[in-house]
Amino acid sequence: MKSTSKTKEIQTNSSSNLLVLGATGQVGKLVANNLRRSEANFSVGTRRKANLEELTDRFGASRFIDLDDPRTFDHALKGITGIFLITGYTVDMLVQSKSLIDAAKRNGVDHIVHLGAFTRDHDAYATVFAWHQMIETYLRDSGIAWTNLHPNMFMQSFLSVWSLKGGEYSAYTSKAIGFTALEDVAEAAAVILMEGPEKHNGKDYWFSADALTPHQVAETLTAATGRKFRAAVRKAEGFQNDAAQPGSAFEPAYAKGGFELFRQVEDGRMAYIGSVRDDTKKLLGREPLLLNGWAKLHANELLEAAGMAAPPATEVAPKDGIPSTLASFVKANNDRDADSVTACFSKDPVVYDDGQIMRGAEEIRQWIAELFRKFQYVVAPTNVRELTNGAILTATITGNFPGARVSLDYNCRTLGDKIEVMVIQPTPVAK
């Protein structure tokens, strides 16, 4: 059960029919979630026929498309007006992208939004960056309206690519690196797709909101999670060695590209990777997430990735009482009182709801008011786990939204008697 708070008026093209690739991955999934919240007309593509039904249930429509088999393209692109183009981390991305661009032109697709890399200058010779520049050059020359997105390092990499074991952040360069939140890029991509080529044709957009050295990263993670992180600067070769380990998602050529990137950042050839250049506010009408804010929203995931225990939790049955702030939050929801819900939060609060971010009292008030407008629902607490700096409220939500019933965890960090950060996620299913 989700809604959206509008900080920017989106002029949606009502005749558009969009196709989102990569919906089973982090980026495509968040793009699709944003389109669904905005009630856009779109499908998600998958190469696995077994996933079609599940993806249709989740997003409303799905299409079979195999980027390694161009014979599947014409049927998948029938009636499509815009594509979100993202490929896998292999050299195959070159032929996949070329073949899809050719098919898009053949089938009358109006607009392609391509997710590339932070290739600010054309003297970037790291393998993966060069691959993206080749794709972008071909797309520009295709005759199809295009928009290229250039994200710097995703903050989500702290949860996967970069090691945080034992609270030690393994960095592959001593120099500053620019970071962007996946949530910002995905929301921007959805807006660009919905507003279409009339507004975004021929545009390059950049996403690098926060530039930090390894030691500044460690200090930021420490402040956001309340647990000590430290930085260990390694040589660039370390990335290639780590990426070559069994089970790695990277092919050798991509791992080599990572090594080249960090080496060229270290020696200054790609120093611009450590710069801030960000179009989030231009596209979304709000400031981008900085690492401190992002880390607060993902504090539990960061601690899990580091193998560091989160603050101890004490379970409390609802009948024994729940913290007064959460009790007020539940009551205000069930009373459908947007002002009282907003009053439960601190001066500068953040709410994260499955990829959607609300910052500040006004965005939160708009978000909850929109939920009240769209849905009738009741919040029934089923469990509370008290933390040293907040609590996790588990509640069953019943109402007239799709599915009619869902169990959600409200993970709250408090500041005094107010909620500072709230992360709303489906309750994990017990294994």
Shape: globular
Q: Report how far the terminal alpha carbons are from each other.
A: 24 Å
Strand content: 25-35%
CATH-derived topology of the largest domain: Rossmann fold
Measured as a percent range, the helix fraction is 25-40%
Uncertain runs: none
Q: Indicate the CATH architecture of the largest domain.
A: 3-Layer(aba) Sandwich
Number of domains: 2
| CATH class category label of the largest domain | Alpha Beta
CATH superfamily of the largest domain: NAD(P)-binding Rossmann-like Domain
Spatially, the strands of the biggest sheet line up as: 3-2-1-4-5-6-10-13
**SS-derived structural category:** alpha/beta
Number of helices: 16
Number of strands: 20
Kindly provide the radius of gyration, computed on alpha-carbon positions and rounded to a whole number of angstroms. Answer: 22 Å
Main beta-sheet strand count, sense and barrel state? 8 strands, mixed
Output mean pLDDT: 88
Keywords:
single chain, 431 residues, alpha/beta, Rossmann fold, Nuclear Transport Factor 2, Chain: A, 2 domains, eight-stranded mixed sheet, seven-stranded mixed sheet, 16 helices, 20 strands, 36% helix, 25% strand, globular
Architecture blueprint of SSEs:
Layout lengths: L17 E3 L5 H12 L4 E5 L5 H8 L2 E3 L8 H4 L5 E4 L7 H14 L4 E5 L11 H14 L4 E7 L1 E2 L13 E4 L5 E4 L1 H14 L1 H4 L2 E6 L1 E3 L1 H12 L4 E4 L3 H7 L8 H15 L10 E2 L1 H5 L6 H7 L1 H8 L7 E3 L7 H11 L3 H5 L2 E9 L2 E4 H15 L2 E11 L2 E10 L5 E11 L2 E9 L5
Parallel strand pairs: 1-2, 1-4, 2-3, 4-5, 5-6, 6-10, 7-9, 8-12, 15-20
Antiparallel strand pairs: 9-11, 10-13, 14-17, 15-16, 17-18, 18-19, 19-20
Helix pairs in contact: 1-6, 4-5, 8-12, 9-10
